Amino acid sequence: MADSRAQKRVLIICGDYMEDYEVMVPFQALLAYGVAVDAVCPDKKAGDVCRTAIHQLATHQTYSETRGHNFTLNATFDEIDASVYDGLVLPGGRAPEYLAMNESVLDVVRKFSASRKPIASICHGQLILAAADCVKGRKCTAFPSVKPVLIAAGAHWIENADMGACVVDENLVTAATYVGHPEFIQLFVKALGGIISGSDKRILFLCGDFMEDYEVMVPFQSLQALGCHVDAVCPKKQKGDTCPTAVHDFEGDQTYSEKPGHDFTLNATFEGIDASSYDGLVIPGGRAPEYLALDENVIAIVKSFMKAEKPVASICHGQQILSAAGVLKGMKCTAYPAVKLNVVLGGATWLEPDPINRCFTDGNLVTGAAWPGHPEFVSQFMSLLDVRVSF
Q1: What is d(CA 134, CA 136) in angstroms, rounded to the nearest whole number?
Q2: 23 Cβ contact partners less than 8 Å away, ≥ 6 residues apart
Q3: Could you confirm whether 123 is annotated as catalytic?
Q4: Which residue out of 14, 41, 50, 123 is catalytically annotated?
Q5: What pLDDT digit, counting tens, does each position of 78-135 carry?
Q6: Is 181 among the residues known to form the active site?
């Protein structure tokens, strides 16, 4: 839950083929915390989309790239007034390569730098900082290939211990990649004057192959950024194993499209977990719930959380698991519209997700229809956990 009595405003400068996670995770996490966020792109207007890129380090000498989600801008670049914002976020990916050549972008960045307002830049976003002459004498990190540019621009390069590295120098927060989002976002929230309380919570995520890409990573890293201990597990897999994810988008077809997503790394082992040691449960959507709903151990875990009336948050197709567990009888909930049959047959009262980002809380249960609803979804789950961000 967020205390927005003194609401902060943040600007995110976007571009085509920015890294998928590196725009959506901070965008939706900050919204969930009660921060007003405007995402803009030069030569585009509110309602236009930016295509994103999925970057992953595998066995190659550099990262691979595939198509990500379509990110919808919610503000118009030409109409922004930098002076009304309290902070700036620069996502990475390939967009910074050309945004760093845009004088209008550089002018905005220079204004934030001159006013000493918090700037958070990740991965290749630091190319923009270098082009704006905002790193001279400053300590910072970035994706390793950006190192020569930063050094040439006069920065004090901090070598990455790993891809989760973050560095703070006064108002400047820099990170190497989206692996470091939890610390990156937390540092930015604190730079904005945010105070996090109630974060001593343990959260369990029930994961599976081809869960929706955003629907696992956004809440996972949003909760970690609040200081919560979050364990992501999958039946028949161990800590360090990966689950391939699916990118589900709304592109004008009669149902969602699907593209390959990031590989999500599990940070705990399913076998032997003690459900009673956790304060809350999250069930991502996507295609994984179709088969996880058939796993007796998964069903037993869900039943235990619901019986104990601990906070449970389930989104999109995740409600297929709730229905199979028989825990929806007498509850009110929503889901992705195609899952309505499961919800109704499970004995719940169906709540129409209109618009698609609507989320609902009934007792200990938070349900959402799809990833556009993450800000409400995470915020309502925070309320049940009594985790707060105040400014």
Answers
A1: 6
A2: 12, 14, 39, 50, 52, 71, 91, 93
A3: yes
A4: 123
A5: 999 999 999 999 999 999 999 999 999 999 999 999 999 999 999 999 999 999 999 9
A6: no
